[in-house]
């Protein structure tokens, strides 16, 4: 079920009987056809176990299930929306940035500490993202929100990419992330360049960066 | 590695929407205005020239990409969003204008936190999702508010000048920042900026809240349309304007800062 971008801030999704889709609660703007919206108490896929997992992880954004046949338009808060098509890879994204995604994608929660150890946990604190992040895996599309539009930067083993943690939106592929601190004496005396912490992404994949340092 | 770098550079000429100060201005097509480009398109063909200065190009309209090969640029503190390659960030105390510049900036309230970015690779800058305009300077002077200056070539000199009444009405002080020399500068605007040409026959009036920058030999006056209606609180909200006369270009944003003039 592909998303079509109507403009930079709105996407339209076609929904057919037998398919379903998850979206952030209240993100529907308009729809055509017979479409039903049911609040999803569990916050996504999986059973009660997954729900508890997400609650504990603080990645439980209120979601709704969209079913029926027709087209639905999504948008939220005037933020830019970026469509990511997945073909088997994994997308790592914060739950609150996720506007809508296909029901065909496997939703999961990942502990940051499992990638990068202690620094991974520090990373979550520095970026204000917490210790957990949401993963989407499989074949399908997801619509991700960002403040001020998104650029995609390719990551290759030869060219790691460094990202400002506040401008980081999401990443996909086989990517390892590491928080690198370039703290010098200047930062200690309050004369820092404002770029003390950077997220180093290495491996093979893509990182999505927003044109702003503001959170959603 | 070196080849790849130069290769990337080669695409810049086509990718960047450069507004050349003093030259013709390229129109921006409305449809793609709001969309950010996905990734840089690398043009085919072997490169023949190697520039030694940092190359500025726009990635979409809100992200500035700067290609560097060991040279440096000055940028607003904390404006980096991503980079590849090797980069170092160093705060330049007092905007890199020495002790005198630092004191001047403190006194005039045109403080700007500037960092020096140096290294090999591509560095991406953005500031609160504001639109970015590239200005190429060939020896002339660019007048811009410190808060609207995102990034400049290291070769450009920055300084402060007195603006008189205009500054006071704009709500950002009596002084403004000047950028001088040969090279590129990136200025930010709230919404896509329009570049208006001023000639001797056609002077221009601008709302102080919408003005962002100007270049060329322009004289500016401050004019007011205060009348009895304004005094009884029935003003149109356009009580003050800046009038530009001479030859040059004025950058205007489609948004107004909160100014004293806007209230009356």
UniProtKB/TrEMBL annotation, chain A:
It comes from the Bacteria. SUPFAM superfamilies: TRAP-like. This is AIM24 family protein.
């Amino acid at each position: 079920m592909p998303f079509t971008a109507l403009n930079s801030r709105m996407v339209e999704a076609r929904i057919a009987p037998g398919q379903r889709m998850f979206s952030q609660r209240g993100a529907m703007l308009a729809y055509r056809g017979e479409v039903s919206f049911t609040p999803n108490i569990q916050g996504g896929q999986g059973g009660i176990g997954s729900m508890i997992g997400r609650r504990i992880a603080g990645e439980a954004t209120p979601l709704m299930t969209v079913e029926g046949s027709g087209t639905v338009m999504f948008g939220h808060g005037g933020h830019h929306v970026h469509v990511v098509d997945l073909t088997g890879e994994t997308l790592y994204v914060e739950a609150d940035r996720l506007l809508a995604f296909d029901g065909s994608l496997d939703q999961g929660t990942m502990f940051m500490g499992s990638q990068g150890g202690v620094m991974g946990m520090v990373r979550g604190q520095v970026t204000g993202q917490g210790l957990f992040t949401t993963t989407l895996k499989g074949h399908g599309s997801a619509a991700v929100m960002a403040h001020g539009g998104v650029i995609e930067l390719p990551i290759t083993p030869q060219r790691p990419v460094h990202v400002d943690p506040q401008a980081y939106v999401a990443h996909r592929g086989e990517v390892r992330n590491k928080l690198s601190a370039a703290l010098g004496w200047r930062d200690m005396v309050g004369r820092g360049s404002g770029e003390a912490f950077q997220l180093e992404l290495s491996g093979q994949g893509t990182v999505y960066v927003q044109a702003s340092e503001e959170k959603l | 590695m070196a080849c790849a770098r130069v290769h990337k550079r080669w695409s810049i000429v086509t990718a960047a929407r450069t507004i050349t100060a003093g030259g013709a201005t390229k129109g921006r097509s409305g449809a793609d205005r709001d969309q950010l480009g996905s990734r840089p398109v690398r043009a085919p063909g072997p490169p023949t020239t190697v520039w030694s200065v940092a190359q500025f190009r726009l990635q979409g309209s809100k992200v500035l990409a700067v290609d560097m090969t060991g040279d440096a640029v000055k940028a607003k503190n904390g404006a980096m969003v991503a980079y590849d390659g090797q980069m170092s960030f160093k705060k330049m105390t007092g905007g890199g204008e020495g002790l005198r510049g630092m004191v001047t900036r403190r006194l005039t309230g045109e403080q700007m936190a500037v960092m020096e970015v140096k290294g090999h690779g591509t560095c991406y800058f953005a500031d609160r999702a504001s639109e970015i305009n590239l200005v190429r300077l060939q020896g002339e002077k660019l007048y811009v508010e410190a808060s609207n200056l995102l990034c400049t070539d290291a070769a450009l000199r920055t300084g402060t000048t007195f603006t008189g009444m205009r500054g006071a009405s704009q709500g950002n002080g009596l002084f403004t920042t000047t950028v001088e020399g040969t090279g590129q500068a990136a200025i930010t605007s709230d919404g896509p900026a329009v570049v208006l040409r001023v000639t001797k026959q056609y002077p221009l009036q601008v709302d102080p809240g919408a003005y962002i920058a100007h270049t060329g030999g322009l004289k500016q006056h401050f004019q007011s349309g205060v009348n009895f209606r304004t005094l009884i609180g029935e003003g149109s909200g356009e009580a003050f304007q800046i009038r530009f006369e001479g030859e040059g270009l004025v950058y205007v944003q489609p948004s107004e800062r909160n100014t004293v003039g806007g209230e009356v």
